[in-house]
Amino acid sequence: MKNLQIGRVKTFEKTKLAGCDLFAVHPILETIAVSTKNELILLEDQVVSSTINWSNERNGVQVISLAFRTDGDQIVAILADGRALVIEDGSVIELEVAEIENSTVTAAEWTGDEQTLALADNQTLYLADSSLVPFVVRPLNFSESDRKSVPVNVGWGSESTQFRGSAGKLKPGEKIEKEREDVEQVSKQTSVHWRWDGEIVAVSHYSEQSKIRNLTIFDKNGEILNNMNIRNIYLSHCFAHKPNANLLCSAILEQGSDDRIVFYERNGETRNSYVVKWPTNQNESKRVIEKIEWNSTGTILAMLTVYENSRRLELWHLSNYEFTRKLCWRFPESESSVIWKWSTVDSQNVEILLGSGQFFSVHINPVSSFSDAISQNVVVATDELRMYSLYRRVVPPPMCDHSIRCLSDITGKLFPVSLPEETMRIYDISVSQDSDDYKFDSERASIDEVLHEEVTDGIICGFVYDEPTESFIIWVASHGKQIICRVGANFEKFLEGDNIGWMGVNPQNSHIEVAFNNGKFLDLTTSDEIFKIEEFASVEVHFIQNRHVILADNSTIFIDSSKVSQDAASIMTRGNDILLIDFDNKLRFVDVESGKTLEDIRDVEAGSELVACDSGSANVILQAARGNLETIQPRRYVMAQTREYLDKKQYIQSFKWMKKHRVDMSYAMKYKGEELENDMVIWLASTNDSQLLEQLLVSCTEVFEFEGSSLCMSVARFISDIEDVDRKTKMFPLLLTALLRLKPSKINECLKEVQEHVEKVVNRKDVFTRDSLHHISFFVPAKELFNCALSTYDLKLAQQVAEASNYDPKEYLPVLNKLNRIGCTLERQYRINVVRDAWIDAIRSLLVLDSSEDRGSEEVWWNDIKDIIQREWLHQKALTLVNPGDKRYKECCELYAIELERKIHWREAALFFELSGNTEKTLKCWEMSRDVDGLAASARRLAVDSGKLKIHAIKMSTTLREARQPKELAKALKLAGSSSNQIVQTLCDAFEWTEASREVEVGKEESLKIAAVSRNEQILLDLKRRQTEFEKYKKRLIVVRENKLKRVEQFAAGEVDDLRDDISVISSISSRSGSSKVSMASTVRRKKQIEKKKSSLKEGGEYEDSALLNVLAENYKWLENIGNELSQLIPLLMTTGHFTEALKMKSVYDEFVLKLQKSKASIWPENLSIQQLPGPLYTLFDPNQEPSPIPMPPIFRLEPELVAPSASFPSVFL
């Protein structure tokens, strides 16, 4: 699926080279050596540097091999008579290599490493070493026994086990008897060629005795390996090894027809898997193949042919096992010779020397044939132009969507151009250079142009169609120069120069652009330089909007002059994307605007190349290394196509597309949002494919729970309202799926829908029911579905569900039969609920049975209710089934109250005992809960006698006094009718000064005053003591931190070897003694020891700073509690006349508060330093750490004592 594009062209013309017979190019120095009859001419930089006269030494004998010796300064010329001429420093040395009997048929060739020379005539093969000394002389005519028996690499095993076609089917001794035709040999010349690795040499020679040409293979030591099978095959003299493969390509003769080629395997049998697309134009002249040669990579096969008295150089390319001719250069009849070969340095360079003295070095690059303008692959195939729409469907060669037959050989191809009317015109160029006309022929148009004389004798390297002038622009290399000109009646030369590497048309402005090998791009229409890139031999140019996307031969990608990638093996453009396959065999995407590689990456087969893609499709076509075509859909283009379908509201197409490409269908909801549900009628009315829409609902509910449930509900309502029975039947599985995917699933509604719709179905009702239940069973476990069927109390439906769910009949049939025998409907429902383990429904059924008239006087049903409630712990749920006016309401409340009492939930038990009407239990539970307010409130609601209430209050006060709850005790004493002095004293003990002042009787305030003054004095003493201690501990903390900082500085300076001090070392040793490092008990013990040390204020202790922080933090908490008490005590002191005491207390309190607030920042700083971390230093750092400045450990634990306490204290007002 490629065409051949010409890149760099080097050409010059020297009249002194006229009449040349061979040439050689130095692979390093690029010096050209040209042999003529009398001289050996050396050229450097296209200038003749020296001339060596060898007429005497050569003596008119033909030169059959000319080569540079890269290991020295020698040039070796092998003559047809077996002699060798070695040219060194301008002198000619003559050596005798072999004695040749017939010098007219001799051939010679060096191995690639220049170590072995093969020289042969039609009788003998000579192998000589690098010193031109023969070491093997082998006759070419040999018997079958002389062949070397070695394993071959076709099939398995040795040669004797190889299958050899029809010959392999013969019986022992039997031969194929077929008379050979008398086909005249065009040339009796012997040909000899080495394989690329120098291990095998093949010789094609003509036997005068048998009148047959044979092709024989020898190893590098001259041992005979094989003879090619020539049954019914008439070999020509030219053949070639395919590099990197055990294949030979040989020209063959056919009676009355053009020469053809045949491919041989190493075992001598022909390979028939290749198809060669020969031209179909029939003329009287016969095409004769003179020379065949592969390039060094084996991708291009070049042939020199003679046709109609002129020579042609044809370039063939293999694609999908089909050989097609891509280029054909015809040389004038006046050229006495055409000498050519592939470059040994650049595998894509072919070097040509004409007899007139013109030299060409042409870089040929296989490029993708995809045309962005028409989204088709336009492929040159010998004498036709093939059109492929691969992005729609893969059509492998030789088939195609459309083909155009040409009148003569194609020398190139012009891609279609777009006209203003948005139509496409396809131009196919046919060149017939034997006459001076330039013909175009296609199925749509015909244009005849006359070539100017300046372009008829050269190589056409490229051409474009200039739409504004409706003429052709040609790039030609001729007579040592390159020109770009308009052909036809209005001949015009635009450019003449060197190093032209590319020519094309910019589709945005229809300007003709030219690129030079130095990297410069020129607008030929305006003569302005566009931009410049790095030097190149050939480029592949794509246009995206106003940008050039360029792939150079060194695998570099440029967007205009900006380099974006250096490892591209193949590229293609689509929209604003550049698709590239890199050297890691990954398909990547580059945004042409930003030049950045996108995140989408896909692995592809090794050796794959991009062939086609189109912005209207997600398909990208790859061609694998073996030639087969593969279609892939990159995820980004699949998603783009999905969005396009959704935007156009082609929902069914988008759903099918997502299903085909395994895109989660929830993407439709993610992209469209609520619009998907709003357009539900559109996509539900467009299809009856229930399975497709089921997959949509399942995907949406898995990802979007709320939105998916809303969509399912809408779909279920829509299908339920369908009146057409047949359509609803088709969409019924979708209805079931919609109900089952709701949160929570509506299984019962599904079964109800089945029951209702089966009555409307006319035919095969049992099949519909079975299919529907089977569908439900995919979503619901069998046990759950069976229970839901039982919940409908339809035992027939339950049996159908069990059968559809593949339930074991031994399990469900006995149960259903037992239930069917129960006559009472209510009791049957109760028994069904028991089978379902639906205990709430069972209690509900029992409550109905218990309230029915025929229940009798026995409490059978109520006993069952109590048993279920107590066994299944359904006390609370059972209460939701009865109302306050129901018969069993109080019994249910009492059951729940007993359970709460058992769990020691006294308050809740008291409330439910109250609802059940059990007064004694109610008061007892309130008494046990120690809730005086609850006891009083419940006694009021139940109208309890005051004496009885007083007894319970006295009991409660005793309990509260023992529990030391003075506040509640005061309430109980008040409820029990105790004296006010006793109540006030209790409140004073609880420091509830405000409440005490409210309860004191008038004239009896003395006890309250005494208690308040006493408490005031005690708090004052505590405040002063704590202030003193706070200052003491604060100063000590500063000292401890300074010591730690000093220790760290000493360690960083290298003054001490360890961060431990003496006490830490002793403590660490004692804590480890007698304990195992892996013991869990030891770890727990160690933690307890640390916590104990954190509570010790012993000076010098390991955790002294932690203990100091804890003590200082405790002062903050204590002062906060005292502040809350003083907010009640100080106002009481003021009202009782103790103004001085109140003012003094407020002053001391405010002073302590201010001190704590100011000290907080220094004790617990916001930015911690190493000395402020509590605990020993050695626990913070790695003991193996080198001494260095240590600002902070990389990781440390935030100990609880580092958390600063609150410094917001209550405000005390007078």
UniProtKB/TrEMBL annotation:
<comment type="function">
    <text>Component of the elongator complex which is required for multiple tRNA modifications, including mcm5U (5-methoxycarbonylmethyl uridine), mcm5s2U (5-methoxycarbonylmethyl-2-thiouridine), and ncm5U (5-carbamoylmethyl uridine). The elongator complex catalyzes formation of carboxymethyluridine in the wobble base at position 34 in tRNAs.</text>
</comment>
<keyword id="KW-0539">Nucleus</keyword>
<feature type="domain" description="ELP1 first N-terminal beta-propeller">
    <location>
        <begin position="48"/>
        <end position="343"/>
    </location>
</feature>
<dbReference type="InterPro" id="IPR056167">
    <property type="entry name" value="A-sol_ELP1"/>
</dbReference>
<comment type="similarity">
    <text>Belongs to the ELP1/IKA1 family.</text>
</comment>
<dbReference type="GO" id="GO:0040025">
    <property type="term" value="P:vulval development"/>
</dbReference>
<dbReference type="GO" id="GO:0006412">
    <property type="term" value="P:translation"/>
</dbReference>
<dbReference type="InterPro" id="IPR006849">
    <property type="entry name" value="Elp1"/>
</dbReference>
<dbReference type="GO" id="GO:0048599">
    <property type="term" value="P:oocyte development"/>
</dbReference>
<dbReference type="GO" id="GO:0033588">
    <property type="term" value="C:elongator holoenzyme complex"/>
</dbReference>
<dbReference type="Pfam" id="PF23925">
    <property type="entry name" value="A-sol_ELP1"/>
</dbReference>
<dbReference type="GO" id="GO:0005829">
    <property type="term" value="C:cytosol"/>
</dbReference>
<dbReference type="Pfam" id="PF04762">
    <property type="entry name" value="Beta-prop_ELP1_1st"/>
</dbReference>
<dbReference type="GO" id="GO:0043005">
    <property type="term" value="C:neuron projection"/>
</dbReference>
<protein>
    <recommendedName>
        <fullName>Elongator complex protein 1</fullName>
    </recommendedName>
</protein>
<dbReference type="GO" id="GO:0043025">
    <property type="term" value="C:neuronal cell body"/>
</dbReference>
<dbReference type="Pfam" id="PF23936">
    <property type="entry name" value="HB_ELP1"/>
</dbReference>
<dbReference type="GO" id="GO:0007283">
    <property type="term" value="P:spermatogenesis"/>
</dbReference>
<dbReference type="GO" id="GO:0005634">
    <property type="term" value="C:nucleus"/>
</dbReference>
<dbReference type="GO" id="GO:0048598">
    <property type="term" value="P:embryonic morphogenesis"/>
</dbReference>
<feature type="domain" description="ELP1 three-helical bundle">
    <location>
        <begin position="1006"/>
        <end position="1163"/>
    </location>
</feature>
<dbReference type="GO" id="GO:0008355">
    <property type="term" value="P:olfactory learning"/>
</dbReference>
<dbReference type="GO" id="GO:0002926">
    <property type="term" value="P:tRNA wobble base 5-methoxycarbonylmethyl-2-thiouridinylation"/>
</dbReference>
<keyword id="KW-0963">Cytoplasm</keyword>
<feature type="domain" description="ELP1 alpha-solenoid">
    <location>
        <begin position="722"/>
        <end position="819"/>
    </location>
</feature>
<dbReference type="GO" id="GO:0000049">
    <property type="term" value="F:tRNA binding"/>
</dbReference>
<dbReference type="InterPro" id="IPR056169">
    <property type="entry name" value="HB_ELP1"/>
</dbReference>
<dbReference type="InterPro" id="IPR056164">
    <property type="entry name" value="Beta-prop_ELP1_1st"/>
</dbReference>
